[in-house]
Design goal:
globular
């Protein structure tokens, strides 16, 4: 079974084995931090500069937006620095609102524009093309759920995250679902419509907040270092820029795939909402708060869509 602590311990050992790492760690603290900051800034210049030269400014903007959306997972984990637990009612309300946000974003920022682009690429077949993409997105997560060991959100509802191995499997589930969410942000920016891309990035960021909390709190409850728990939660969200970069570069280079890609992202997000989030919020008779929270999240996204537009 996957051991999260062993995984990170091995990665740290590999990093420490590099001679350059040892030399940096021997520096005085101010110089050491300056070296790490310089290395980070240089890596960002190389990454974003390369993307700009190869694909243009739109890809850079989309990639950056997917990074910010992924970092919202870490933002959501921050309350774990001060709390060991939150009420089930509050957590279900947060997840319900996240589901509403995702539903609105899927409809207004992926499906509607996806059908329009489909009609332009394949006149009279836009709806069919997007529908096929939706099924492919749902099947992708279906097979990922079957093949990769993980735990579902209902483990949170049952309060059964009582071991590090169970938490590790739950983290894998979050990571699996974050990839297509990041891809949806990239695909949306790939349309060239900064409005839809921005709205979807905000929606994914809002949805990531309760996920980050769901990862960090059980780790803290098991005695994990609080900052390390927040860091691990943040890392689960940083798979989103990978999906975002894949999505935006794919549709930028192969524009005819855009309607299928938008349908794929929408199908994957609907799968997560129906398979994971809504069942968890309706567990143990707590559905009413989650239902109104879902409607509230949907309304918030409609307002944001109107304001940004």
């Amino acid at each position: 079974m996957f051991d999260l602590e062993l995984f990170f311990a091995n990665r740290v050992q590999q990093l420490q084995a590099y001679p350059l790492y040892s030399r940096v760690m021997e520096l005085p603290k101010p110089q050491r931090w300056a070296a790490w900051l310089s290395a980070f800034l240089l890596s960002q210049i190389l990454v974003f500069g390369s993307l700009y030269l190869l694909f243009g400014s739109l890809v850079v903007i989309g990639f950056f937006a997917s990074i910010l959306a992924g970092l919202a997972t870490g933002l959501g984990a921050l309350p774990a620095l001060f709390l060991k637990d939150i009420s089930a009612r509050l957590f279900n309300g947060m997840l319900g609102a996240a589901a509403g946000v995702m539903l609105a974003a899927t409809a207004f920022s992926l499906l509607v524009p996806g059908i329009d682009f489909g009609e332009q690429a394949w006149p009279g077949k836009g709806l069919l093309v997007v529908s096929v993409g939706m099924l492919l997105g749902a099947l992708f997560l279906h097979f990922a759920d079957q093949k990769l060991p993980h735990l579902h959100f209902e483990t949170v509802a049952e309060e059964s995250l009582d071991s590090l191995q169970k938490i590790s499997l739950f983290i894998i589930a979050i990571t699996i679902h974050n990839f297509p969410e990041g891809m949806s942000v990239g695909v949306s920016f790939g349309t060239g419509d900064l409005h839809n891309g921005s709205v979807l990035a905000i929606a994914i960021a809002l949805q990531n907040i309760p996920e980050g909390l769901a990862v960090a709190l059980p780790l803290v409850g098991l005695g994990y270092d609080k900052w390390k728990a927040v860091g691990i939660a943040t890392l689960t969200g940083l798979v989103e820029p990978v999906g975002g970069l894949l999505g935006i570069t794919m549709v930028t280079v192969f524009s005819s795939f855009l309607p299928i890609a938008m349908g794929f992202a929408a199908g994957a997000m609907l799968f997560v909402i129906s398979e994971e989030i809504i069942p968890e919020t309706h567990a143990k008779g707590r559905s009413r708060v989650a239902t109104f929270s879902l409607m509230g999240g949907f309304i918030i996204m409609m307002i944001l869509d109107k304001i940004i537009g």
